[in-house]
Write a structure and sequence with these properties.
The protein is of the alpha/beta class. It has 2 domains: 168 residues, Alpha-Beta Complex (Quinone Oxidoreductase, Chain A, domain 1); 134 residues, NAD(P)-binding Rossmann-like Domain (Rossmann fold, 3-Layer(aba) Sandwich), CATH 3.40.50. 27% of the residues lie in helices and 26% in strands. It is built from 10 helices and 17 strands. The strands form 4 sheets. Strands 3, 4, 5, 8, 9, 16 and 17 form a 7-stranded mixed beta sheet that branches. Helix 3 crosses helix 4. The longest helix has 20 residues. The chain is globular, with a radius of gyration of 20 Å. The relative contact order is 0.15. InterPro entries: ADH-like_C (IPR013149), ADH-like_N (IPR013154), ADH_Zn_CS (IPR002328), ER (IPR020843), GroES-like_sf (IPR011032), NAD(P)-bd_dom_sf (IPR036291), Zn_alcohol_dh (IPR050129). Its cofactor is Zn(2+). This is Alcohol dehydrogenase catalytic domain-containing protein. Keywords: Metal-binding, Oxidoreductase, Zinc.
Length: 342
Amino acid sequence: MRAVLLPGDRKVVVAERPDPTPGHGEVLIASRASAICRSDMGLYSGDHAVVGGAIAPGTIVPGHEPAGVIVEVGEGVTSLRPGDRVAGYLAIGCGLCEQCHAGYRMLCPRWKCVGFDVDGGDADLIVLPEANALRLPDEVSFPAGALMTDMVGSQYATQSRLGVRGGQRLAVVGLGPMGLAAVLVGRALGAEVIAVDPIEARRETARELGAAHVIGSEGALDTIRDLSSGRGVEVAVDCSGNPHGQNLALDAAALRGSVALVGESSATQISPSDQLIRKLLTVVGGWYFPLGDWEAITRLVVDQELPVERLVSHRFDLTDAAEAFRAFDQRETEKAVFVWDE
């Protein structure tokens, strides 16, 4: 089979590897879509890994947002069979600890990440544990299914946690792929979405996805206050990971409002007294979704006919992996996805 390897220094190798076989409790999946994520860029450059990273560079197949068709099941698999359409859940947990039992396998102290610690979806075939192969409704395309496992799923879990609903205003700061997913999910949950980004093309996409207001970064706080009669928004979600965006989210939130920080970030300076304490603000980290949310995520997408595939800006064949990673790294694409013939 063909498989992408990232040895670092922005090099990409499409190698021939033996076809994997499923072990006990595992399934073999023929890939149909696998998305590139900004977190993959640490592997691509060789500088760092957002998660995982204990494995030698260039030895693990990347791709933590896969979708495809089961072609073989290992011994002990009872809930899936060949021909089932599935998407891949990225967190492999021990299955025994408190966090695993709660469905938060990415919080398991012994967890492994697909595409970072074990081979991911940027290959013709991928092996996953049975629990990590999530059934994909027939109404959902494979590219959409791949995006539902990270961007859409993460936003659903985060916004549901904050109680986003009709009658609320939701500010989304940063309209990269994750931010656009936040717009899509927030609108589906009934909120009036205010979308913020300095790039006009991203703002226009947000408008097409249902944002009620799209504004640039310059003077964004004043505009948000004007749109909310000076009150601020009930919920703000930062997807930029930028200190200015994070502070905008904190400042834009109303008294007793909520903020989710989703964009990855290493350091940010804030003013806790003014921005959190005296506003009685609820601030959470937003990262991935528990297994138990998958059914609700698929229902939301199917019942409301969400145009998840609209989040894909570029499609690539696996043979063109070097160009795909280069273009994504240079921000010439938004969400890029490897696709196989269905």
